[in-house]
């Protein structure tokens, strides 16, 4: 609970709050009758940031959830899950760290540029 579920719920709540605040800011910009190009650009940036955030959270939760489900289910089933299965789901969780740079590289040109330099 302390290493995944509680932090996962906290992260989802914080990201939801960030999303709601970003929506309010876009609406306030739009309501101040800014130029339509600026408002459209802000709306496009908001959608891109929301999409990136949702993908990163989705990838994180989907890669680590099998491991933490196994940890809860195994004692309930009399420790019948094979050790090889645990090793596999741990490595799936570790693979999340490999996916994060790829997700950022897909969505941000500045990240691709920095990645090429490295």
From TrEMBL:
Membrane topology, from the record: Multi-pass membrane protein
Protein keywords: Cell membrane, Disulfide bond, G-protein coupled receptor, Membrane, Receptor, Transducer, Transmembrane, Transmembrane helix
Domain G-protein coupled receptors family 1 profile: 1-104
InterPro entries: GPCR_Rhodpsn, GPCR_Rhodpsn_7TM
Gene3D superfamilies xref list: Rhodopsin 7-helix transmembrane proteins (1.20.1070.10)
Domain of life the protein comes from: Eukaryota
SUPFAM superfamilies (alphabetical): Family A G protein-coupled receptor-like
One GO CC term, this protein: plasma membrane
Any one GO molecular function term: G protein-coupled serotonin receptor activity
Keyword Secreted (UniProt): no
Pfam families the record matches: 7tm_1 (PF00001)
Broad class of the protein's primary localization: membrane
Protein's cellular compartments: Cell membrane
Coiled-coil features, chain-numbered ranges: none
Transmembrane segments: 6-22, 52-69, 89-111
The protein's name: Trace amine-associated receptor
Biological classification of the source: Eukaryota, Metazoa, Chordata, Craniata, Vertebrata
Gene that encodes it: TAAR
């Amino acid at each position: 609970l302390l290493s995944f579920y509680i932090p996962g719920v906290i992260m989802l709540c914080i990201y939801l709050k960030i999303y709601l605040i970003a929506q309010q800011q876009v609406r306030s910009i739009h309501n101040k009758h800014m130029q339509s190009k600026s408002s459209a650009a802000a709306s496009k940036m908001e959608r891109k940031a929301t999409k990136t955030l949702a993908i990163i959270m989705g990838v994180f939760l989907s890669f680590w959830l099998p491991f933490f489900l196994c940890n809860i289910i195994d004692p309930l089933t009399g420790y019948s899950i094979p050790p090889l299965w645990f090793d596999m789901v741990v490595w799936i969780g570790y693979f999340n760290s490999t996916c994060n740079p790829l997700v950022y590289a897909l969505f941000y040109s500045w990240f691709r540029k920095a990645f090429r330099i490295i």
